[in-house]
Amino acid sequence: MSRIMIAPGKYVQGYGELKKLKDHIGDLGKKVLILISRGGLSRLEDTIRKSFSGSDSEPVFDVFGGECSREEIERIRKVCSEKECDVVAGIGGGKILDTAKAVAFYEKKPVVVVPTIASTDAPCSALSVIYTGEGVFSEYLVLPKNPDIVLMDTEVVVNAPSRLLVSGMGDALATYFEARACIAADKTNMPGGHATKAAFALAELCWNTLLEDGLKAVLAVEARACTKAVENVVEANTFLSGLGFESGGLAAAHAVHNGFTVLEECHGLYHGEKVAFGTLVQLVLENAPEEELEEVMGFCASVGLPVTLEEMGVREIDPERIMDVARTACAPGETIHNMPFAVTPEDVCSAILAADALGRHFLA
C-alpha cells in the first residue's frame, strides 16, 4: 500500500497578513470572488480592498447565504461565471470555507482559504461538508486537491472569542492520538494511503505545541494580545492538526464526537469541545497509562475543555442514552473502526462512563 501525504499549496500565517491578500494571491488570477458573511464584510471590506489598491486585480464580493448547501454552491457558481472571476476566496468560518472550496472545484478555479477563527483543523483539508438548506448534514464532498493557499491572519484571530481558539485546541488534541491508533492498526488515512513519517511527526508536534503553549495562548487571547504562544497554537490548530489528521488518519475520538451529536444537550458545544472528550474516551478504550490520562485531563482542564459529562452539558446520566451515543459512534463506516482492536457499542458506553468518572476524580 502506498504512503500518501497531502497538503495545501501554500500556508501563510502572521499578524496583519490579510492586508497583503493580493500579494499572496499573486499570479493565481486577476478577478477574485470573495465569499464572506455580512458581518465579515462590514469588518474586513476596507482591509481587503486596500490590499488590491494599485494593482490590476479586483475583488468581487458576494455575501454568503448561511449554509454550505448544494443550492448555495450553485448560486455562487453562477456569480463566479457571470462576473468572470478566475479565483475563489472564502473568508470566514468553516461553512464559508467549505463552500468556497466546492465552488472552486466545480468551476475549475484556484481557491484561497482565509479562516477568521482558529477553531478547527478543516481549512487545510481537501474536503467540503455539504448540508441541506435547513442545516442538516447531507454528504461529504471529497476534493481532488487541497486549497492553493491557506492564509491565517492572527490579528483577526485574536479578536475572536477565546472559546473558539480553545475549541480548536480540542480538535487538535485528538490529532496525535488518532494518528497513533491508525498507524498501530495499519489503517489508511483520508487520501487512502498509509501515513508517512512526516505526517506522524507533525501530529506529535501538534500535541507537544498544545502542551507547551496552550494555556499561555488562551490567556493572551483573552487579553486581545498576539504573542508567540498564540502564533504557535494557531499553527497547531490549523496547519499541524490539518495535515496530521488528514494524512495520519482519524480513529475513536471523532467517532465519539459524532455520537454525542444525538444528545440535544450537547448541541451548544463546539466541534472541538466534543472531540476533546472523545479523546479521553479513546484513551480509556486503549487502557492508556495513568500518567498519559492525567496529562491529557490536566491540559483540558487548564484551557477549559470538558473532562466530564456534566461539563458536556449532560447533567443526568441515563445509561440508555449513553448507549445511543455509543451506537452512533460505532455505526458502519465510522472512524472508530480504525482502532487497532475491535470496538463494540458496549465498549464505548463503558468507556464514556469511565472517562466521566476519571474526569470527576481528577477535578476533585
Strand content: 5-15%
Globally, the shape reads globular
Parts with pLDDT < 50 across at least 5 consecutive residues: none
Domain count, please report it: 2
Order of helix and strand elements from N to C terminus: EHEHEHEHEEEEHHHHHHHHH
| Rounded radius of gyration (Å) | 20 Å
CATH homology-level superfamily of the largest domain: Dehydroquinate synthase-like - alpha domain
Spatial strand order of the main sheet: 1-8-5-4-2-3
Query: Residue share in helices?
Result: 40-55%
- E-strand count: 8
Q: Determine and state the CATH class of the largest domain.
A: Mainly Alpha
CATH architecture of the largest domain: Up-down Bundle
Reported for the largest beta sheet, the result is: 6 strands, parallel
User: What name does the CATH topology of the largest domain carry?
Assistant: Dehydroquinate synthase-like, alpha domain
Number of helices: 13
Structural class: alpha/beta
Distance between the termini: 47 Å
Mean pLDDT across all amino acids: 96
Write a structural description.
Helix content is 52%, strand content 12%. It is an alpha/beta fold. The chain folds into 2 domains: 148 residues, Rossmann fold (3-Layer(aba) Sandwich), CATH 3.40.50.1970; 202 residues, Dehydroquinate synthase-like - alpha domain (Dehydroquinate synthase-like, alpha domain, Up-down Bundle), CATH 1.20.1090. The strands form 2 sheets. It has a 6-stranded parallel β-sheet, with helices on both faces. A two-stranded antiparallel sheet has the order 6-7. Helix 2 links the parallel strand 2 and strand 3.
